[in-house]
Design a protein that fits this description.
Elements lengths: L7 H4 L13 H13 L2 H28 L8 H11 L1 H19 L1 H8 L3 H35 L13 H26 L2 H20 L3 H7 L10 H4 L12 H25 L3
């Protein structure tokens, strides 16, 4: 007669393995980074940002050199970085909106929410990954545009260096403000949930509001000029000098204004993202 022996340890082995820890922010960040680098639009947008910024710096500085000394009132840092600020903000809003609206257009947002049902974590992860990628690329672009412009300006010995008191600040803020405008578009994308609508809304905000403000009486325009989301308020950001205009804040002050706009749109977008159906 045969007796089957089962050890006490074997008898306690559960038939189903215990549930794994639910994904958190770290896992969601890795997932979102895979998403953003697996889409062609990311590369095309960032390449356009790099090429447009450097090309602007090269052509602008070459024009200054060819017309020198008629342009003696120019600022060497601003000549190199104007393209980074002026064109970069327009290009990056496309990617900022696509980061979230593309998932609504394809229906992928339902899959993302199934994998990560904690909507606040998903929304924050998308914003963090986008901000990190855009800031890294814009920093490299900003330094490259600055150095390209200064090499050209050195032909007339009118260049500056990063050792200048305000040059490094201009380079860093010119890169950071690009990411801020991208986050503006990200927030608008979460609110509108349509790529064309989000891009149109942000471009209208950047162009239309400053233009309408210029139609106001001078005293009114000067009172609100420093609070505009773009236009003249961008000038101190890329200027490699102390800004002394009474109607505008300093470079850091104007940067804080842009961050305020981004914070409001991001907050509204987060609130709606967490409460509306996918």
């Amino acid at each position: 007669m045969t007796t089957a022996t089962v050890t006490r340890g074997q008898a306690r082995i559960p038939a189903v393995s215990p549930a794994q820890r639910r994904p958190g922010l770290a896992e969601t960040l890795r997932s979102e980074f895979i998403k953003i680098r697996s889409v062609r639009s990311t590369y095309w947008t960032l390449v356009a940002l790099v090429l447009a910024s450097i090309a602007w710096a090269a052509f602008d500085c070459a024009g200054i050199v060819s017309h020198w000394p008629q342009n003696q009132g120019f600022n060497p840092a601003d000549a190199s970085l104007a393209g980074q600020v002026g064109l970069g903000e327009l290009i990056i809003v496309t990617l900022g909106a696509l980061v979230i609206t593309s998932e609504y257009s394809t229906g992928m947002i339902r899959t993302s929410l199934t994998v990560m049902p904690r909507r606040g974590v998903l929304y924050a992860a998308k914003a963090i990954v986008f901000a990190a990628v855009s800031l890294a690329v814009s920093l490299v672009t900003s330094f490259a545009a600055f150095l390209t412009g200064q090499v050209i300006l050195s032909q007339k010995h009118i260049n500056t260096t990063l050792a200048h008191p305000f040059a490094l600040r201009a380079v860093l803020l010119s890169a950071a403000v690009v990411s801020v405008f991208g986050l503006l578009a990200y927030g608008a994308g979460a609110i509108i949930r349509n790529t064309a609508g989000a891009i149109t809304a942000i471009l209208g905000m950047i162009f239309l509001i400053p233009l309408l403000a210029q139609a106001l009486p001078n005293s009114w325009f000067w009172a609100i000029e420093r609070w505009l989301p773009s236009g003249p308020a961008l000038n101190p950001v890329s200027a490699g000098r102390a800004w002394s205009t009474d109607h505008l804040f300093s470079a850091w002050g104007e940067f804080a204004v842009f961050c305020g706009y981004a914070a409001v749109l991001l907050a509204v977008g987060a609130w709606l993202f967490c409460r509306r159906d996918a």
